[in-house]
Amino acid sequence: MKKKALSLPMLLLVATISLIGVSCKKSAPGGGSGNQLSDSDSLKYLMYRIMQKSYIDGGRDTHEDLPTYYWYKQVPETDPLSRAFPDAPTLLNYLKGFPKDANGRAIDKHSFLDDGTTNSEIQQGVAGDKGLEVTYAYDSNRDIILVVLYADKNSPAGQQGVQRGWTITAINGQSVAYDGSNGTNVSRVINAIFYDGSATFTFKKPDGTTMNATLANTQYQINPVLFDSVFTVGSRKVGYVVFYTFSNITSGGNNTLTKQELDRVFGNFQNQNISDVIVDLRYNRGGSTNTAEYLSTLLAPSSVAGKEMYHYKYNDKLTAIASQAGLPDVVRFQTGGNLNLQNVFFVVNSNSASASELVINNLKPYTNVQIVGDTTYGKPVGFFGLTISIFKNRTEKFLADLYAINFETMNSSNQGGYYNGMAPDKVAQDFVGYNWGNPDDDNLHKIFSYIATGSYGRTIPLADRLREDPSLKVPVQKEVHSLRFNGMVSERVSEAMQREMRRR
What we know:
Pdz3 Domain, 3 domains, single chain, 2-enoyl-CoA Hydratase, Chain A, domain 1, alpha+beta, globular, six-stranded mixed beta sheet
């Protein structure tokens, strides 16, 4: 079918697109005539052009055929200024509904527009929330209660000592009893956790005591390590680390707290001569590929130095100019790790996505990888991370950060495509009432059994476990959806794209 060319009034603006974390200064040309688009229409137009037509000159170029969207071929010609799309998010939801898998199911669950929050969290390692995630869960009486999944140690919640497994019995003195996904109480919980500037929480600890804490949204340096320890299993030392986000290991040329914490943890593992390691990624939705590469290196055997870690796949248009544009193809291990590991265990569930899955996939060809828990999210694709701005009266104005799928990754054995997630080698329950490191945690219990005997052991039916231990808590299907970033941003590709845009 012949594509219909888009028409657009001449703009009295100059649009630029810069990669996240990279300053892009550009002078607006003088002169010109025509109608001036609103900011909302400018965002829709530029977003569509960047995804489907050409990223050159921030989407204004009409000569090159260089779309950035990975599945651009499956999206029909669309008028981004149609009244059918009142805003850019509506248009983006429409566009990303077209890519389908072989079974006709939509595969782009990921592309989104952002206000800069994601860049701050992933690239700078700075958050501005209360620092805790929660879930509704069943207790042994089948009552539904509100439970803390985790709290960042540096966050307002972490600084108040809030721990995984604590229950929340009230917020601002009002009920948090489960009343359905659209209920007043559930809405109150969501607002308090994610949106309200401040809220007072009543916590109940495992020992039955209570604590009131007023938590306010505050900026803090993200500490992605929630817990780390070394266990002794028989004669073997086993390292354990809980890692909840892939915030970048560098920012502005300096090492971040993320790198410092990873170095501390793995330095301790090396000093204690561990033989096995457990990396708990249960709630890790992804982040920086720089950090995924660094963690992959720490976990890999020394023999991988110089070998392929993973490679990129782009759309056909970007693939054709990849060498010219300097877009990376193969990412190699610069070095190997310093640990002599017999097994690398990953604890995962349906929240484990993107960069988490990338690390697992990177290591599969080189070491004995074991996956325990539940099937992962299923996201073998990632973003460049593009900032859309306009210039009005020679003044730059930020419109949005665009995260639309730009690439897919495959490991050195050409394995990937895990859109349905990675299935575990052993299924284990996520009993959210246990704090980190509790050996009765179903995941740790099974892994310790494997290390000691070579077998994960018999699976005890959930009903029997609940009868045996009344303190167990099992999450219900997600009613409190996390607002944290889900995906992976490639700094390597972003930097190459920035250089290419400047060259042209």
